[in-house]
Amino acid sequence: MPKAGDLPFAVLGLRYCWRRLRCYGAVAYADQKAKVLSMGSISLESCEVFAIHSSSSSRVLRFLDRKGDSFIVEIESFNVTARQSVSAFAVYEDLPGWMEDLATHKIPWVDSKDWATLEGDFIISATCGSSGLVVFNVSLRGCPGGAEEWRVSVGLSSELGQLQNLARAARQFFEG
Questions:
Q1: DSSP letter, residue 79
Q2: For residue 75, is pLDDT > 60?
Q3: Choice among 87-91, 93-97, 147-151, 167-171 with the minimum mean pLDDT
Q4: Within 10 Å of residue 111's Cβ, how many Cβ atoms?
Q5: Which one-letter DSSP state was computed for residue 97?
Q6: What's the rounded Cα separation, in Å, for the pair 28 and 38?
Q7: Using a CB cutoff of 8 Å and minimum separation of 24, what contacts does 87-96 make?
Q8: Phi and psi at residue 97, to the nearest 5°
Q9: Which one of 6, 11, 50, 153 has the fewest CB atoms closer than 10 angstroms to its CB?
């Protein structure tokens, strides 16, 4: 349980508050059982999960279970959850590099910044409006080319000021 002087967990948006942790200079609380750390629109779950939480809804994009060049992408949105195992191989750069490129922007940008796996089973793009609202559009595809191919797409919002923290967390997940 939190000690006297600790910030209330409701400020950080967590349901449980059993342990205090430090990450990137920010103090946050964690659920002892799940080891979930949440800072605004970012969370690391024991460095085995990297997540982007929407700043305007309950939507979450999670990257988990990294094994070599493969990892699982999970989209959780209202009543829909989709998971797909994907390969980290991409046409241009690695995903942490893409996130770091986004983080170099100090002002909103005009065009869409995209990243995709070679197979096209995971596609993420980012746009940033004049207010600094960053919108990630995410698409997962399973059984590509098969008779039972499926596709789930969702948008989730973040903020321009969160991109450096997201880039650091992505690098830690993929190289940690």
A1: T
A2: yes
A3: 87-91
A4: 8
A5: H
A6: 6
A7: 87/117, 87/118, 87/119, 88/117, 88/174, 89/117, 89/118, 90/115, 90/116, 90/117, 90/118, 91/116, 91/118, 94/174, 95/63, 95/124, 95/170, 95/174, 96/167, 96/170, 96/171, 96/173, 96/174, 96/175
A8: -65, -40
A9: 11
Quick: pLDDT tens for 11-56.
Answer: 333 222 222 332 322 223 333 333 343 334 444 444 578 999 999 9
Query: Which residues, 6+ apart, have CB-to-CB distance to 42 below 8 Å?
Result: 51, 52, 53, 162, 165, 166, 169
Q: Which amino acid is at 19?
A: R
Torsion of Cα atoms, 5 then 10 then 11 then 14, to 10°: 110
Could you tell me the end-to-end alpha-carbon distance of the chain, in angstroms, rounded to an integer? 29
How is the chain split into domains, by residue range?
1-39, 47-175
The pair of three-digit structure tokens given for residue 94, joined into one six-digit string: 């690695």
In a 3-state reduction of DSSP, which class is residue 48? coil
pLDDT score, position 176: 72
Per-residue pLDDT reduced to its tens digit, 147-160:
999 999 999 999 99
Per-residue pLDDT, averaged over 3-8, amounts to 38
Distance CA 37, CA 43 (A): 5
Kindly state the tokens that stand for 108.
Answer: 């909103």
